Amino acid sequence: MPRPGDAPGLVEIARKWAAELADTEGVSLPPEEIEGSLLRFAHELRAETDPVREGAKRRFAALYSASPLGIALADQDGVIVEANPALGRMLGRRSDTLRGTPIPSLASTDKGSATLATGLAELDGADLSLYRQLIVLSNAEDDPLWVNVTLSQLPSDCTERSYPVLMVEDVNDLHLLQERLRHQTLHDSLTGLPNALSFSTKLESAVAADSPGQLALVYLDIDGFKVINDGLGAGLGDQVLRTVGRKLGTVFAEHNAFIARLSGDGFAVLLHGELNATEVIALVQQVLDELTEPVYYDELGIGVSASAGIVVRKAAGGSADELLRAAEIALHRAKEAGKAQWMLFDPELDARDRSRYRLGATIAGALENGEFSLVFQPTVKLAKQDELAVVNAGLRWNHPEFGNLESEDFYPLAATTGMMIPLGRWLLTESLSATARWREKFGGAAPEVCVRLPYRLATDPDLVLLVKEELDRNDLPAGALRLCTDGPSVLDPNGEVIDSLAVLADLGAHLVLAVSGSADLELIRTHQLPVRHVILTGEVVDALAVHDDEVASRHLGQLVSRAKEMGLRIGAEGVRDAAHAERLRRLGVLAGRGPFIAQSATKSDVEELIDRHAAR
């Protein structure tokens, strides 16, 4: 029999099965007894299962209340019907005040609201078990709260429907830390400006946009910053860098400029819009002027000068690498031109420079492939121009594309690329080898050879060893060689040249100094240089090329008189014609070389001259 309190559904099931069992052939129990037996079975089954279910409910309730995650249970429309204390704390509200609040309205932005609405819709209309997103919620203090939200479905107790549940994880501190680390990764810690990585990203974006208007890139570098850093300390140097960053920001404030500190004392400014070179140059000049104004640090008024390279071009087309290269070249030219100024990138000049630099980069291969040869310039006595005094040796590059290149075409490039030492060694080696052959062929009629030492070779500490090795290898006395150097080489701060010249003179080599004025001449006395010959060069000789000039003649005459007082023999280079040679001779110049006798000569030409000289 049914008991009071039995659920109607349970009674109905028991009666159904009782009828079935009663109708079964061979069963003698009455239906009422079978029904009672089944109800007892059901009660026992419920007794077994209810504690499990009730325990699960209690555990869920405890977890819901104590969870650090914010949890909100919602109805079918996504309206909150219950929220736990953690969610209330996150939002700065009592949890019961969240009832009746649509889940999407918890977001602080329209985008966040749309994200939550989309998640609810996808859970309702698709076979999704979870929907996760990072969004910003708003709390009672209107501070942004970054959270990870998870939307899921919970089944109903008594129906097959499921209802939305919102779970919220507070990641605000983690997000702020990530943002701080991201800022540190992309910004310079000293000035607060974007760093080189951030600038590179910005530049790539600017050139990739293919947008209208112009791009302007300014590279700015502080001149002589090492003086400030080493002289006044790195701490004050840091303050100067901050000041430079602030002044750049002030000048470019109204121009939507992206300003970055690249490295050391280098800065970059990127502008995009309707620009022209004149406007950009005016802004850069304003920056340079601002930087020279002293700023006081602990009563020290410090102003700096800066050099700037400027590139202005169409925003569309080209690449970031091309823009960077152009700015670097313009900055380099500004430095070379004397610093404390700006230089605008010139595409035509750059094209010429590229050709020159390509030439300089191939010097090593040309030397290895035998493209260099000796070229000679005879020096004769001006009183007896048929008498050979000395032969000056130089280098010529027989370039397969550009033809014959003289030393002035490639020496500066060799100095830049570090190839001056190999070229100088080759020049010395080949010159002494040629001298040895002439001495063997012509005996005493063979002239001395004079080698003009390139600056880098003159200052090389191994110069003496190199000369001695080549003299010994060719079985030549040191007196067969003249070595010519100039004032800048003598004044090398390392002092190697003076010491080397003294040792070479002791070996017996004849030393020649190129002189362009009285200051060069006085180096011999000041440094007690073991020089026996001087060669006049430059304007002091050129001034008398066309006609007699009273001032130029007086100047050159004074140089010659002073050289004679010092017991020196005087020659001149760059003598153009017979009349020029005569004017120099009258003023006391003993020997000369230049176009008046021969602009240049090959080995066979020199041998012919030696032969004629020997015959006379």
Automatic annotation (TrEMBL):
GGDEF domain mapped to chain residues: 213-347
NCBIfam families documented for this protein: GGDEF, sensory_box
UniProt domain EAL: residue ranges: 356-614
Protein name listed in UniProt: Diguanylate cyclase (GGDEF)-like protein/PAS domain S-box-containing protein
Pfam families in alphabetical order: EAL, GGDEF, PAS_8
Boundaries of every PAS domain copy: 56-100
Highest rank taxon of the organism: Bacteria
CDD domains, per the entry: EAL, GGDEF, PAS
